[in-house]
Design a protein that fits this description.
alpha+beta, 11 helices, disordered C terminus
Length: 608
């Protein structure tokens, strides 16, 4: 085994090493849990009986499965069944102890998922999204013949949460037309009437979003935990939907200082305290907030990123943690490792350095990793997707692979990223893509001036929105980049809008301030296809042929123009959706990217 391992490059070992997600446990049967793992080479759903220690694979599909939920009694595993990664499908369920799958809610046609809520009494609410119907929510009560539609709107929305007694439903919606800032409606399921509404967008010059974090886990308790942006960042508050009482929470650390950055929370069992998750400058930490005393207590976690946390009935908190240098594991505040994937622990990687650069819209935060040796290095600017997401100090096999091959890696939390306040996230509207490239360009200038990056060997790379920014950057900033690597990108924005899933159409209308027909100049200015004639760097593109987010037709349009212009490029198409859940496929894709970069930038030829 050790000899075999020694012949496998470290970067491939990191991809092949098994991983596990944070386990999700059944509300009324906490010894029953679900998690996702790639231990067989494909990401699938696993059931874990914590009492006996038994683990069982629930799903087994060629292209993998990640969306699953346990019923509150722990009797059933619900999982979403789509076709080859197209995200269009139906919910199925399987007994926790094993057995045949069955259609979970017969009578509902395939759709994109808009959420799922499973009540303790057997109540089910299924959210669906289709191009024809927009968002619809469907209720099935115990013993009912079939589901009943209880909500419909052309704009995107979804299931928020069911109250603990299954009498109330929270609906996250964007009926006001602003897909970046949702509102919440509370519906009484007995008669489908509206009990309360929390909308901080309609009629406001400065829209603020609210989002459902969950009803209190106590019978008859009508308090809803809500995230809000009233002070320009995400913070939690309590909203009693029966009385209308709102209680904003003063979260201050042991020194009396208000927590900076974004703050989220979830109920601890019994609803007397909250588990608080604090994100700031690409790292995160955990606290307990006592609702009676107002005390905030820090929970010990290593410096890095908490990729999810859950409070157990025994008082402990379990969390998924990693850093750029250290692989992930599910840990507990009791000091133990709760769940680690089977097999070898993947090789460590290089810690990140924090860099702050003055950009046109304010200070830009970048995460930098340096390979062995002296610079300047060939450098990969690995651009995150989203765009409402951010890079963090967490373990990732992709950047580590580039470091192993002698490349420095720079990741930029450009305007549009989360974790730096609402104004930073909202700044990309209407100048879509161009705003982000200004920030990436500012960090690029720093990287060259500081001696980190070789200006002749700069690679712009990313997937999804990062792939979009890669293609846009190659055309808008052709003198800045020697190579481009774009995975599942938006390449022709107008055609992408025609073909993409309805939820993303709603987001795009918000970003651009209208449809392509209403504001064509904005869409044209932000489309990579507009600038394809200015592209000079070799381009590598990978695309999933079943991708509903960045559909294949618009990518083919861009590739066709590259061919007509005689620009050097390569395209890899694979039979999946917006990325792959198969480990060997991911390795193949990165190997092709590294090979492409080495052939165009570094002597030595392709990898073997």
């Amino acid at each position: 085994m050790s000899d075999e391992k020694s012949t496998v490059p470290a970067w491939e070992q990191r991809f092949r090493a098994a991983r596990v997600s944070l386990p999700d446990w059944a509300e009324d049967a906490p010894e029953r849990a679900l998690y996702v793992s790639n231990s067989t080479g494909t990401y699938e759903v696993y059931a874990w009986d914590r009492g006996t220690g038994a683990h069982r694979r629930v799903t087994d599909r060629p292209n993998g499965t990640t969306d699953a939920e346990l019923s509150p009694d722990g009797a059933w595993v619900w999982w979403f069944d789509d076709s080859d990664g197209d995200e269009f499908g139906v919910w199925r369920r399987q007994p926790f102890t094993g057995g045949p799958d069955e259609e979970a809610v017969p009578g509902l046609a395939a759709s994109y998922s808009a959420g799922l809520a499973l009540g303790r009494d057997g109540t089910v609410v299924v959210g669906r999204s289709t191009d024809e119907d927009g968002t619809t929510l469907h209720l099935r009560r115990p013993g009912a013949a079939g589901p009943v539609e209880i909500y419909r709107h052309e704009e995107y929305g979804g299931v928020g949460d069911l109250s603990y007694d299954s009498t109330l439903l929270a609906v996250d919606h964007t009926e006001h037309g602003d897909a970046m800032h949702s509102a919440i409606r509370i519906v009484r399921l007995a008669d489908n009437t509206t009990v309360a509404e929390l909308d901080e967008v309609t009629g406001r010059a400065e829209p603020r979003g609210v989002a459902c974090l969950g009803f209190a886990p106590v019978d008859g308790d009508t308090r809803l935990l809500v995230a809000h942006q009233r002070r320009g960042r995400w913070e939690p508050m309590l909203w009693d939907v029966a009385t209308g009482t709102e209680t904003e929470l003063a979260l201050r650390d042991e020194n009396g200082r208000e927590l900076p950055g974004d703050v989220s929370a979830q109920w601890r069992p019994g609803a007397r305290a909250l588990l608080v998750e604090h994100e700031y400058e690409a790292r995160s930490e955990l606290f307990t907030f006592d609702l009676e005393t107002g005390g905030l207590t820090r929970l010990e976690t290593p410096r890095g990123t908490v990729g999810g946390a859950t409070a157990r009935p025994d008082g402990t908190v379990e969390f998924l943690w990693s850093s750029a240098a250290e692989p992930s594991a599910v840990r507990s505040t009791s000091g133990s490792v709760v769940l680690r994937a089977p097999g070898e622990v993947p090789p460590r990687s290089v810690p990140v350095e924090d860099v702050w650069v003055d950009g046109p819209g304010g200070r830009v935060h970048a995460l930098v990793q340096r390979p062995a040796g002296e610079g300047p290095y060939p450098t990969v600017f690995e651009v995150h997707g989203g765009p409402t997401h951010h890079d963090s100090d967490s373990f990732a096999a992709g950047p580590a692979a580039w470091l192993d091959h002698g490349f420095a890696v720079v990741r930029v939390n450009y305007r549009g990223s989360t974790g730096y306040g609402q104004a930073w996230t909202d700044a990309l509207r209407e100048r879509v893509g161009l705003i982000e490239l200004e920030d990436i360009g500012a960090v690029r200038e720093w990287a060259v001036a500081s001696g980190l990056a070789d200006p002749a060997r700069l690679v712009l790379s990313g997937g999804s929105w990062g792939g979009y920014l890669t293609l846009l950057g190659l055309g808008v900033q052709p003198e800045h980049w020697a190579l481009g690597l774009a995975a599942v990108p938006v390449a022709d924005y107008l055609t992408a809008y025609e073909d993409e899933m309805e939820a993303l159409k709603s987001l795009d209308r918000t970003l651009f301030g209208g449809t392509p027909q209403e504001v064509p100049e904005r869409w044209t200015a932000s489309s990579p296809l507009t600038y394809v004639e200015q592209v000079r760097a070799p381009v590598y593109i990978s695309a999933g042929v079943n991708d509903p987010r960045c559909p294949i037709r618009q990518i083919e349009n861009y590739v066709q123009r590259l061919e007509q212009l005689g620009r050097p490029h390569e395209v890899y198409r694979y039979d999946a959706g917006h990325g792959s859940l198969v480990v060997e496929e991911r390795i193949k894709q990165l190997r092709l990217e590294i090979d492409f970069a080495r052939r165009h930038l570094v002597p030595g030829g392709p990898l073997v």
